[in-house]
């Protein structure tokens, strides 16, 4: 009766009715938040029929844990490394909890301290990059040693664990990046030798080992070298209209700074901009001039963006992406490590376990990325709620919508993965497929809204249908200020709908319902706060290239990350373990969730701050003028 396509319309409706619909996940609204109240009854009858062959009976939410009931459908939970270390099951004489703790600590240092520090140091070609890389491998070697010792000394309690394989694969990827690095150093040494330059330790170190300045590379044209030096496209220049990236053309833009001149010229230039855009005096533009301390770099050369070979650009982008993904791979390793240690995801728990951990992990990382955007980490792409420097880069909303579409496409088919062929669709499958199809199509709408071409077509259509008496060049046909920004509520809508649906998801136990409500409401909170961000920015779209830091966005990212964390904690086995041990307290789970989220945000502030600090150190002094 419910076709998946209908779920595209229903979420939109449901979201409008958000305030009027009950968010409590009791028996009468087990999963009916997407339906109107009138349909809810019919829906429950339907669900009851579908669940006849499942052990869960719709309409009864159990208050207390019942081991007997669980054993009807699941094998008894075997002991794990956790029970070995903390409950002494199976009994042992020696415990090596310290070794496992050491493994976690060392790997944490490698992936969450050395690795991000290395990435930041590389971006400015700092001499200490090598030290960060060496410490990364040092921590990894020691961490592997301690875990190897732990497994050697303990009985095997997890058959077919994937954590080690996953870990070695990640280390292999990291090692291949290091090899690429070493090869480029070797290439530069060869080129240096071939160039028969007089050997000077200082230039050799700077140009050959650190790769800061490749002017002497004879096989490269000057244009190309400029591109190579500015490997990261983070330098942004404004043209005189303050609208976009311009190639530096006049000699006035030569990199020759002292504090006084840059301040003078910036102030004067900002004044020009202000005159041009007399709409608001609040957001003054500021020239973040090319940030190279290299006095050899002459930016009067033709625009480096076009001069960089596309192979080089793709290579750099792939390298940077893979390098940053290693941090996320480190996070995945933390999760799989915890799973193996606590003995989770075995036997018929595996599918639900994977679904919660992977999807929760995606929301968690998405929340952290959103906070990084708020902090200004992607201001060069115009993703930090700032005016984009380069209009040709895809907007953050486009990327969000693209990811949402891909996620929806893949998940539509995954839901039936565990089902027997020919078996009827269960209510749960229809619910989840409905959500996946919503992701799919809402993502497509989101991408379409980001298309400037589509917008231009519609504008052209509008202008073309104007009566001939209207002056085509008049103010009335000018682009509205909101075209400067990208206001696309669909990514947030999708997540908000998912959240409200999940807050009403039927669960066998009261405690599981509460945990689902916790993260469902957090995701819905993200959506509401993101809408508020758009509301404020729509009234006053950002003009400055600096991150505008909408406060609603900080809260939104917090809700999103905390929602992802609570999503992961709502894994069936986690809630069962909590109930078994009498720890089924949703406030405790909420507190732990926000604590971990704050810790991660603190780490993120540290990482972004460190990178910004390095950039500031290696740049000429830039003075900012306030906009009061
Ligand atoms: C647990 O479930 C079993 C099987 O459904 C039932 O017989 C038993 O009464 C339940 N125990 C409690 C304490 O509810």
From TrEMBL:
<feature type="domain" description="DUF2427">
    <location>
        <begin position="91"/>
        <end position="177"/>
    </location>
</feature>
<feature type="transmembrane region" description="Helical">
    <location>
        <begin position="128"/>
        <end position="148"/>
    </location>
</feature>
<dbReference type="InterPro" id="IPR018827">
    <property type="entry name" value="YTP1_C"/>
</dbReference>
<keyword id="KW-0812">Transmembrane</keyword>
<keyword id="KW-0732">Signal</keyword>
<feature type="domain" description="Protein YTP1-like C-terminal">
    <location>
        <begin position="330"/>
        <end position="611"/>
    </location>
</feature>
<feature type="signal peptide">
    <location>
        <begin position="1"/>
        <end position="27"/>
    </location>
</feature>
<feature type="transmembrane region" description="Helical">
    <location>
        <begin position="326"/>
        <end position="343"/>
    </location>
</feature>
<keyword id="KW-1133">Transmembrane helix</keyword>
<keyword id="KW-0472">Membrane</keyword>
<feature type="transmembrane region" description="Helical">
    <location>
        <begin position="100"/>
        <end position="121"/>
    </location>
</feature>
<feature type="transmembrane region" description="Helical">
    <location>
        <begin position="518"/>
        <end position="539"/>
    </location>
</feature>
<dbReference type="Pfam" id="PF10348">
    <property type="entry name" value="DUF2427"/>
</dbReference>
<feature type="transmembrane region" description="Helical">
    <location>
        <begin position="554"/>
        <end position="571"/>
    </location>
</feature>
<feature type="transmembrane region" description="Helical">
    <location>
        <begin position="430"/>
        <end position="449"/>
    </location>
</feature>
<dbReference type="Pfam" id="PF10355">
    <property type="entry name" value="Ytp1"/>
</dbReference>
<feature type="transmembrane region" description="Helical">
    <location>
        <begin position="592"/>
        <end position="614"/>
    </location>
</feature>
<feature type="transmembrane region" description="Helical">
    <location>
        <begin position="168"/>
        <end position="190"/>
    </location>
</feature>
<dbReference type="InterPro" id="IPR018825">
    <property type="entry name" value="DUF2427"/>
</dbReference>
<protein>
    <recommendedName>
        <fullName>Cytoplasmic protein</fullName>
    </recommendedName>
</protein>
